[in-house]
Amino acid sequence: MATAASNTALTSGGSVTPHDPEATAPDSTRSRRRHLRFLSSPKAAVGAGLLLFFTILAIVGPYITPYDPSARSNDLLQAPSWHHWFGTTHLGQDIFSQVVDGTRSVMYVGFLAGLVASALAVLIGVTSGYLGGFASDLLSALTNVFLVIPALLLIIIITSSLPTGGETVVGLVIGFTSWAWGARVLRAQTLSLRRRDFIEAARATGESTWRIIAFELLPNLSAVIISGFIGTMIYAVMSEIILAFIGVPGLADWNWGTVLYWAQSQQALAQGAWWWFVPAGLAIAILGTSLSLVNFGIDEFVNPRLRNNGERGAKGADGRPVRMRVGFTPVVIPIPDEPEAGTGVIGSTSTSEDVAQ
Amino acid sequence: MSSKVSGKEPVLEIQNLCVDYGLGKESVQAVRDVSLTLHRGEVLGLAGESGSGKSTLAYGLTRLLPPPGVITGGKVIYHQPGGDPVDVLRLSDAGLRQFRWAETSIVFQGAMNSLNPVHTVASQLMDVIAAHEPKMSKSARLARAKELLKLVGISPDRLGSYPHQLSGGMRQRVMIGMALALEPQVVIMDEPTTALDVVMQRQILRQLVDLRERLGFSVLFITHDLSLLVEFSDRIAIMYGGRIVEEAPAAKLYKDPLHPYSHGLLNAFPPLRGERRELSGIPGSPPDLRSMPTGCAFHPRCPKAFDPCRTDLPLLAAPADRTEEDRTGGERTVACWLHPGA
Amino acid sequence: MKYFLQRLAFYLFTAWAAITINFFIPRLIPGDPVMALINKNRGQIDSHAIASLYILFGLNKHQSLWDQYTAYLAKLAHGDLGISFSNFPTPVSTILANALPWTICLAGAATIISFALGTFLGVLSGWLRGSRLDFVLPVTTFISSIPAFWLGLLTVATVIAVGSTFPVSGGYDPGLIPHADTTFIGSAIEHSWLPLGMLVITTMSGWILSMRNMMVTVGSEDYITVAQAKGLSDRRVMFSYAARNALLPNVSGFSLAIGQILGSTVLVEIVFNYPGIGYEMLQAVGSTDYPLMQGVFLCITLAVLVANLLADIAYLILDPRTRKEG
């Protein structure tokens, strides 16, 4: 996969951005390889790998836990051991099982909220960017209001007020309150795409508005949409964990936040039971990191300037890494009278001869 | 300063300069083995289509080429007035900073974005003076900034303006004034008037010619518009596919272009003055740097291509089919199999 | 000036939207929370307070929605946010007035420090890209993924475990009475070190990453090349040309960040039992004290709006293009 990806990079010169209309022309095999290209970045590959791991854990987690996460035992507040990898709670519950079982709730809420928020962001952002006029201003104002209102508090209030809780409700509430950032970015992207030739051309040939949006605009916005989806997922995961941690009712299932909630309320800290809260917190941090890494990959894919110029680990002829800098083009010249041509080099800083003023 | 120094004393010598984009296997050669000499007080024009490597050459010789540009060979010798020649490519960072602007200044293509949007004109004129003449007092720098604006025909009360408050022509004139701030020996101009309308182009070019007469700096003038060069420059070099394909005194190139590419370029733009020529342009598009044609890079587009063009690379040399007098009167060279070297 | 007035109008509109959302949320609550409260405190609630709660909760079924809305706005205009259920009969406004200064000081200091430090580190890591400073990227990514409150928990545990007497709970020594004297302020500052540190560490990475990206993007602008061509010192090009321009989007991105910082502050306050709004929020959620929750929400929203207004003024000063042509 990596070689296919780099081949594509080579043939396209690595300079064509995915927003180039030709780049996303309906050449399915080529565009599929293009979409995989972002995995050639080690950051993105590590992130995607970790994400896959958590997704699998979310699916199979509840079936593979060594113990029932709620079952009490006589091993009260035990440090990690072979029997209990992450130790036990004050009731003798197995923390490893709680963390593994809780992955599903976390991933489910993150995924659901990301889906809802992305759908709303596309609907509101693309519409307001494409249509223009009064409706556009109104949608833009709505977006800005939701951007400024502290969503976390709103989520806390709404979920504590709602009679029935549960992961689905929490996910929906988070999704409905956190679409604004994505909508703003998509609006800006749509505004700039709208003026591109290929959209103008489609309009001139009389294609219907919805056809243009679905077949011309959205494919070009896909990277931004996916990046927004992942951003919302990070946010939703954090929010759900915070809700569970402060004891908002309705999240009866095990998740990483409830583990922390019990650790906090049972004074795990005062008793020195570090194992009670360290694994869940690390799991949050690793999941968050993996999502961020995937997003970096997408960012670098969309904005080639953020890439390390495809020169990762590039070395000059003298074996020293060449650092690309704006304003000081590196000079990599083999010394001509060196018997073995190409081995010696005058680096950009090796010889200095100041200009006498 | 005397007007129009036509002396043969070189001020900037580019020797076998090679510039690549990228390192290792993925790199492409954008400038190939280019040698060019700028003499004191002359205007040397450099023309070619976009992608011919002319801007890469200018950025490369000043080491301003952004990543992934890399200089892979050659020398850029600068002859200081009354000092030893230095190789710009072998200067240390500090030496390069000292050299820049004081000896060689540049007016860039994207004049619209050449000024920092958040600082005033005065601050941008003064910071370059402060960087090179740290002993100068603030009031002296301000006086110099005023002087520079006057020099390019802008009222000194514009000193406090921000770039967005100036018109495109004014911004470009500010850039020209800035380029002259330290009275450099060489000014490189990279398409300085391309973004402006024709009237403004004429005004600025006339001013430029006037300033050069008064101050006596040398100019390397880069443009895709050959007819502009014919009028303003002393000598012209034509670039194609990263190489110089023809170099000649401006009048000779205009009257008798030898390389078919030069001929095509001359007919691609209406001349600003003089007799009208029929516009024809050049069919086809510039070569892809990643897959350069064999032999002469121009042969796929050349109306006069014949057998050797496809396989053998013609080298830049004085054409044998021009008279001795023609060759010595003002050296001209061409890289074309139609006019092989003597 | 026009720009400023536009922003001001927008914030007034947002404040109105937040108030209106606040008006509708309690109407989602099933049953009659006021009745439940009255039953709990049988006979001890004065009828005036009950009437006020009914207005705020929209439980007065005899009124039209519009009349309820205007009555609600009138109450708010007089600073009447109702009476806290859990601290009965203290008015919500009194509780908030006591808690707000703590939160504002903590969040304000954290915002300023993390913005300044994060932006500076972002400038360096963006400018020196490709150097050893690149390690900043993965490290900050990881740190930004750690919930601030969890880092707080770890810190509290560590402080306790090493047997330090450094304060990890509360806003001041329990023996002191809040008063503007040096002992009290000294104690308050000592208590705020850890919460402040947690907030700065976890919110700083966002600024580092966005500033780094902006530095890289700005780095390819023409005026940076011109600055290098002018032979200016590296420091001058980095700060006066690149960073000065890269800063602008960061300042305008403030609106998103300030909400997140306040969210983190709420959580960190809970972990450290810090006597601010967040701690009150926890109490409110624990005892389903709706008037207090809503008061907290309104209060924080207004604080966010004010912070945004300040950021807009900063932007106005930093970007000459938004200023009036002179």
From TrEMBL, chain A:
Keyword Transport included in the entry's annotation: yes
Biased composition (Polar residues): 1-15, 346-357
Entry-linked InterPro entries: BP-dependent_transpt_permease, MetI-like, MetI-like_sf, OppC_N
Keywords tagged on the record: Cell membrane, Membrane, Transmembrane, Transmembrane helix, Transport
Transmembrane segments: 44-64, 106-126, 138-162, 168-186, 221-246, 274-298
Compartments it resides in: Cell membrane
Limits of the ABC transmembrane type-1 domain: 107-295
PROSITE patterns according to UniProt: ABC_TM1
Region (Disordered): 1-33, 337-357
Membrane topology type: Multi-pass membrane protein
Main location: membrane
Recorded superkingdom: Bacteria
Protein known as: ABC transporter permease
From TrEMBL, chain B:
UniProt key word Membrane: yes
Every ABC transporter domain range: 12-266
Pfam families referenced in this protein's UniProt entry, alphabetically: ABC_tran, oligo_HPY
Subcellular localization(s) per the UniProt record: Cell membrane
Membrane topology: Peripheral membrane protein
Molecular functions (GO terms): ATP binding
Family note: Belongs to the ABC transporter superfamily.
NCBIfam families linked to this entry: oligo_HPY
Name of the molecule in the record: ABC transporter ATP-binding protein
Protein source organism: Streptacidiphilus cavernicola
Automatic annotation (TrEMBL), chain C:
Membrane-crossing segments per the record: 9-29, 99-123, 135-162, 192-210, 246-272, 292-318
Domain ABC transmembrane type-1: 100-311
InterPro entries: MetI-like, MetI-like_sf
Keywords: Membrane, Transmembrane, Transmembrane helix, Transport
SUPFAM superfamilies: MetI-like
Pfam families for the chain: BPD_transp_1
Domain of life from the UniProt record: Bacteria
Location of this chain's protein in the cell: Cell membrane; Membrane
Membrane topology: Multi-pass membrane protein
Family: Belongs to the binding-protein-dependent transport system permease family.
Full protein name: ABC transporter permease
Origin species: Streptacidiphilus cavernicola
Taxon lineage: Bacteria, Bacillati, Actinomycetota, Actinomycetes, Kitasatosporales
